[in-house]
# Entry
Amino acid sequence: MKVLVTGGAGYIGSHACDALLRAGHEVVVLDNLSRGHHAAIEILTRRAPGQLTFVKGDMGDPTSVERAFAGGVDAVMHFAAFANVGESSAEPALYYQNNTAAMVPLIDAIRRHKVQRIVYSSSCSVYGQPAQHLIPLPESAPLAPLSPYGRTKLIGEQMLQDVVEAVAADGVKTALTCLRYFNVAGCEPQGELGEDHNPELHLLPVVLRAAMSDEPKVKLFGTDYLTADGTCVRDYVHVCDIADAHVKAIDRIVPGEVAMLNIGLGRGISNLEIIHAAQKVTGRVIAIESAPRRPGDPARLFANPASANERLGWTPKFTQLEQIVETAWKWFAAHPRGYRA
Ligand SMILES: NC(=O)c1ccc[n+]([C@@H]2O[C@H](COP(=O)([O-])OP(=O)(O)OC[C@H]3O[C@@H](n4cnc5c(N)ncnc54)[C@H](O)[C@@H]3O)[C@@H](O)[C@H]2O)c1
# Structure
């Protein structure tokens, strides 16, 4: 299949491109490189010569989108977005512009080209702060995002559902799969494709970057939660398992079906466990500074991934926390300045 990947120069998108290329698909990446890395495109192109086309452009620009759709595409994987919760609260207009308004040319092209397979990067942030008795969280949990970021992810799901209905009116049965990722972590085991956000706010990369410093120290936000060790509990899923879920989502479609699927391991790992695993893998002692809870952080948040397991035939391979940390460390240790190294 020929697959259009928006945001393919970013962390998760580049890993998904690699999985697509390995599976023999042709890939067109549309990315404006606002937060992505041309180095990732170079790695992918070297690995699969002639199989990947890179279109540098904004998904909000109809001309760039049309260039990406040139000759037609069989599937669209839509990763392109800004994904920083704190930034979205400080700059809501930026988030509504980039994550929703800029989707308009993309959904217009999907409709005109009658694309039959769509996979969308959604997020557990669409659930907000769910009641603790609902954990492990099913897809039927109330949708109540707390941040502009979470709201843009939910609106994106709705925009794509509207397109599927519009295309259905033309007699085309498009399958839409919205993958609601929980905490994405790790890097490919080969150590070339990595995670390079600026600023980096995800816990594992923050801890690994701290481990590389002269005086390793991290802040723990909230140590008095009603959890086993008092710190927040989250569901960490390896980026290669996420990529695998995307490939399965275009392979195993039911025409016309819209599916929202939680993508997690269904197992909670505490912030403190992440720090301990990082200490073990890196061999560095990391000092912990206790800080107050952050508003809106639920004590425990992990998925019930049964629907994704069943419908996609998806079985995560990176099930041990240490495996996830090791793959991340391999990349961070070799790339102290990210892709610039
Ligand atoms: N990282 C996570 O833990 C996580 C969790 C849940 C959901 N997600 C979602 O997964 C997707 C990818 O996240 P990531 O961590 O890989 O982010 P990333 O910043 O590494 O990648 C996003 C890519 O999209 C590109 N991009 C952004 N806006 C664009 C635009 N208007 N036009 C063209 N390209 C544009 C950026 O240049 C970048 O390459 C996002 O949609 C995010 O909301 C991420």
The chain has a mean pLDDT of 96. Residues 7 and 31 are 5 Å apart (CA to CA). Residues 2-185+236-264 form a domain with the Rossmann fold fold (CATH 3.40.50.720).
